[in-house]
Design goal:
The chain has 24 helices and 22 strands. β5 and β6 form a beta hairpin. α4 packs antiparallel against α5. It is an alpha+beta fold.
Length: about 750
């Protein structure tokens, strides 16, 4: 059995703890939830936690904003100790510990037999005991036998369920209370528990202290992979290699090894085993990270935060935020970008890494065709100078720079428990890492920086006589003049055109790195954005990739798959709108479009298309200028190619109606109205039991999702035959049993 708690890390409930019980726990905005969160980003019935034999499973209840675990969107997830759950804008840390082996669970009363404690003190203050006034229990971090119901806070709802039905009482222990005067500030009428147990963390530290000087002069490398590596999980051969390897690391030699060995040594260091003082411990952790991070990139996801935690807890003289600056300089994963931004509030923009500025923008310049055609250095230098000049201009005019003019209303604290997911035996006090302004999610700042980046690139495009310009922004004339002047001061004369060979693998690598930072900024900066290495799923593409035709110039059709992902997600009306734009040389009056599409609001359609374009292509697709809607220049070649491809696929000849005269009239009507792609899909389902890949390929050809393609067949069947003919609940989809013979007969007439 397990005992578990939820610790709220962010939002209005930060610091609250909830004990989980042996029945489903509902979370949501409605007052009938066991955990009631009154916040608009949370759905009325957002999620439920269900107890299983091996822990709790989080189920998303079709919520609007979804459920996230360690930065990954999930619908169902088995939670593990230390997982960070995000519900709306709230972050909650899940802590689960196995209950003691002698725990008993009765029907009416549940009791937990607590392991013999090292220290126990119970302090009572005179007065009636009230659940609302009982302070939460205090425990040591790493405790694997944490009692699950010492002081459960009341449910946050107007009419809380009677607490006795939710309390798992700790049976009396033969230890006398220690008399103590009420502490100043302690709530009157409450009970304070301070309990500490012997844990696996303690056992690890005890063993580590005994083995602190152990060294193997020679050993052979033995692979070692463990989810939570400790000495106990090693074989004798692995132990010999570990102590040999650790000895070499201590003399600044960092041989190849497995990641699990590295983590065991990290656990020693964060518990101050084998360190001379706090400065030595910090430096050992830092060197271990720097020497192995390129071999094991996932170290960035843990050690950056852990090194900062170490500096805070051990009161190191070095700034705890220094490791974040060092990480960003090395283009490492940084989970708390606002920590970095807070360092530059009073400095010149010249000191801010340009990659950090780009990550704050809603425009991904790394995907720009102009940028990729050999202009990376020019754009980087020009953008850096433009930002500095705009910042200086604002300081001269308003007394504040960019950050000062676009500062959020109030700073927010960044909280976390120390050494998340590590084997650590210290105290579990919630750390306040920093109190910073949430610049990374502040829309006015993001919009302003996006405008500066786009206008800087447009000035360079104009100077280089590059076809097309970026759209969808408005800029103050003074700021525009400052940017133009600063850019033209360093822009070189136009170079003769030459064939550019683009390293697509390098582009994809840079794009993935940029997308990771951008995702953190847009979806919540205070989450662990990566699963543990043994939990990370392989990426799944919703449609097969589209290959660029041979002989395509390097600067054309570079975003085929990004634009195709957009086309399969927009509606039929929105796709028809794009076709109209293509037929009208990529621009059309807003009034004319409104007349052509009376069933939709053009502004809403444009916003929806642009929202998807920003997600997949890094820039808007449609811009409004002078009463006209225009297609962004950079994506016109992709749209031309894909829309023609869709039109060609749907325009292929269909067998004439007379070919189906041998069928019942309704079936003849159904077959004669099928489009070519629908007919091929129907044939794939009827003749191939493994039709999923083929259906996805057919859907890609016409620019729609596979589910939409199948639904279109069923809709036509319902209209003509009176019922659907494809069972979509089957995986893969199959022809309904009652219709299979008729479908086979009809398909035979099409060959």
């Amino acid at each position: 059995m397990f005992s578990a708690q939820l610790h709220v890390l962010t939002g209005a409930l930060a610091g609250q703890a909830f004990n989980l019980i042996d029945e489903p726990i509902t979370i949501g905005r409605a007052s009938d939830n066991l955990i009631f969160i009154e916040e608009e980003s949370v759905s009325r019935h957002h999620a439920v936690l269900k107890p299983e034999s091996n822990g709790y499973v989080l189920h998303d209840l079709n919520s609007t904003n979804g459920c996230w675990v360690n930065g990954w969107a999930v619908t169902d997830a088995l939670l593990r100790n230390g997982d960070v759950i995000r519900v709306g804008t709230f972050e909650i840390c899940y802590e689960a510990k196995p209950a003691p082996p002698n725990a008993t669970h009765g029907a009416a009363t549940r009791q937990v037999s607590v392991a013999t404690p090292k220290v126990i003190a119970v302090h009572s203050v005179a007065g009636p005991i009230s659940a609302e006034r009982v302070p939460p229990a205090k425990f040591e971090v790493g405790d694997e036998r944490r009692a699950s119901a010492v002081s459960i806070p009341p449910r946050l709802r107007p009419t809380p369920l009677p607490l006795p039905q939710r309390i798992i009482p700790i049976p009396p222990l033969p230890v006398a209370p220690v008399p103590e005067s009420p502490r100043q500030g302690a709530p009157h009428g409450g009970i304070r528990f301070e309990i500490s147990y012997s844990t696996s963390g303690d056992r690890f530290i005890n063993a580590a202290q005994k083995l602190v000087d152990h060294y193997e002069a020679s050993a052979t490398f033995v692979p070692f992979m463990s989810y939570w590596p400790t000495y106990d999980s090693m074989t004798n051969a692995q132990s010999r290699w570990y102590f040999h390897w650790r000895g070499r690391v201590r003399i600044n030699d960092y041989p190849d090894t497995d990641l699990s060995y590295v983590f065991v040594h990290v656990y020693e260091l964060i518990n101050n085993v084998g360190v001379k003082n706090e400065s030595d411990g910090y430096e050992q952790l830092r060197k271990l990270w720097l020497n192995y991070r390129e071999r094991f990139t996932k170290l960035d996801n843990y050690l950056i935060d852990w090194i900062s935690d170490y500096a805070i807890l051990n009161k190191c003289t070095i700034d705890p935020l220094q490791v974040y600056r060092e990480a960003f300089e090395r283009k490492a994963f940084v989970s708390k970008p606002d920590i970095l931004l807070s360092q530059y509030e009073t400095t010149s923009f010249a000191e801010i890494p340009i990659s950090l500025v780009q990550a704050l923008s809603d425009y991904r310049i790394q995907k720009s065709k102009f940028y990729l055609q050999g202009n990376q250095d020019l754009v980087g230098e020009s953008l850096s100078k433009a930002l500095c000049q705009v910042d200086f201009h604002l300081r001269t005019k308003t007394g504040m720079g960019i950050f000062g003019n676009f500062r959020p209303a109030a700073p927010c604290p960044i909280h976390r428990y120390p050494f998340h997911s590590a084997v650590y035996a210290g105290t579990g006090t919630l750390l306040t890492v920093a109190k910073v302004y949430p610049y990374s999610t502040h829309a006015p700042l993001r919009e302003f920086l996006t405008t500066i980046i786009k206008h800087t690139e447009n000035v360079l495009r104009e100077h280089r006589r590059y076809r097309g310009k970026l759209r969808g922004y408005e800029l103050n004339a003074e700021i525009a003049a400052v940017i133009r002047k600063s850019v033209l001061e360093i822009a070189v004369p136009p170079a003769p055109r030459q064939r550019i060979e683009v390293d697509m693998e390098r582009i994809e690598e840079l794009t993935r790195a940029s997308d990771q930072v951008r995702k953190i900024l847009l979806e919540g900066a205070d989450t662990e954005a990566v699963r543990r290495w043994d939990e990370m799923p392989a990426p799944v593409s919703d449609n097969p990739p589209i290959e660029r035709p041979e002989g395509t110039p390097a600067h054309l059709l570079t975003d085929l798959n990004e634009i195709n992902r957009l086309l399969v997600r927009i509606t039929e009306e929105e796709r028809r709108l794009l076709e109209i734009m293509r037929e009208n040389q990529w621009q059309c009056e807003s009034i004319r479009l409104a007349g052509m599409f009376p069933g939709i609001l053009i502004e809403h359609a444009v916003d929806h298309i642009n929202e998807i374009a920003l997600k997949f292509a890094g820039d808007i697709l449609l811009a409004s200028e002078g009463g006209k809607i225009l297609v962004t220049d950079d994506y016109r070649d992709e749209l031309e190619f894909l829309l023609k491809r869709i039109a060609a696929s749907t325009a292929q000849p269909i067998p004439p109606a007379k070919a189906f005269t041998g069928l019942p009239p309704e079936w003849g009507q159904f077959m004669s109205r099928l489009k070519e792609n629908q007919l091929r899909t129907l044939r794939a389902i009827a003749t191939n039991g493994q039709s999923r890949d083929e259906i996805r390929k057919l859907a890609t050809e016409v620019g729609i999702m596979p589910e939409t393609l199948i639904d279109s067949i069923n809709e036509l069947a319902h209209e003509t035959i009176g019922d659907i003919i494809i069972d979509t609940n089957s995986v893969p989809p199959v022809i309904e049993e009652d219709d299979f013979e008729m479908v086979q007969k009809a398909l035979a007439l099409t060959t």
